[in-house]
């Protein structure tokens, strides 16, 4: 019976050690449980931080590609935008959220990890002078990684940002 107890305890420790988001596997890109927020909660957070948003379709329907939606956005993504705003001191305007029409994948817009930002000189200078250049993405977009592990890709007419975490909130 003692061997069984020891093995059970060992299994629990190893399970916790190697569970995504915990222990040995905790990195900026490990998937783990996230808190989802509503469009209304996100816009309230953004407004309180002086972050604006715009939509080419003047709408917020998640199922319409020309809308800018924050429905099902990760809380850490919203907080990451707030951290970016306060750290950079730059104007931030979000042009893409969780709406359909973006590339898929685990760390995608649809899954709440990404936001698109308008390109402003202040923001571009902050990203390029503060974060580490990590090379080009498969589509040719140059990328920078923050100290927290979030990735900023210059897609030409906007910044595509993957928030793995809140950036030190």
How does this structure look, described?
This protein has 169 residues and is α+β, with helices and mostly antiparallel strands. 30% of the residues lie in helices and 20% in strands. It has 4 helices and 9 strands; from the N terminus they run H-E-H-E-E-H-E-E-H-E-E-E-E. The strands form 2 sheets. It has a 7-stranded mixed sheet with strand order 2-4-5-9-8-7-6, covered by helices on one side. Strands 1-3 form a two-stranded antiparallel ribbon. Helix 2 packs parallel to helix 3 (75-88). Mean pLDDT is 87; it is low at 3-29.
Strand order in space, largest sheet: 2-4-5-9-8-7-6
* Helix-strand string: HEHEEHEEHEEEE
The counted number of beta strands is: 9
Percent of sequence in beta strands: 15-25%
Individual helix count: 4
Output the structural class: alpha+beta
Using only CA atoms, what is the Rg? Answer: 18 Å
Lay out the secondary structure.
Blueprint: H1 2-17, E1 36-37, H2 39-49, E2 52-53, E3 73-74, H3 75-88, E4 93-96, E5 114-118, H4 121-130, E6 132-136, E7 142-145, E8 151-154, E9 158-162
Parallel strand pairs: 2-4
Antiparallel strand pairs: 1-3, 4-5, 5-9, 6-7, 7-8, 8-9
Helix pairs in contact: 2-3
């Amino acid at each position: 019976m003692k061997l069984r107890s020891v093995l059970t305890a060992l299994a629990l420790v190893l399970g916790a050690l190697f569970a995504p988001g915990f222990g040995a596997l905790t990195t900026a890109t490990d998937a783990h449980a996230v808190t989802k927020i509503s469009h209304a909660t996100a816009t309230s957070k953004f407004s309180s931080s002086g972050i604006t948003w715009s939509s080419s379709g003047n709408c917020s329907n998640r199922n319409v590609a020309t809308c800018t939606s924050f429905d099902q956005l990760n809380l850490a993504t919203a907080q990451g935008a707030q951290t970016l705003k306060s750290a950079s001191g730059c104007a931030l305007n979000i042009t893409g959220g969780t709406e359909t029409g973006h590339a898929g994948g685990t760390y995608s817009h649809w899954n709440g990890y990404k936001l698109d930002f308008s390109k402003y000189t202040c923001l571009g200078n902050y990203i390029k002078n503060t974060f580490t250049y990590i090379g080009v993405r498969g589509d040719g977009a140059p990328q920078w990684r923050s100290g927290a592990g979030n990735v900023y890709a210059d897609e030409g007419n906007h910044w595509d940002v993957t928030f793995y975490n809140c950036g030190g909130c």
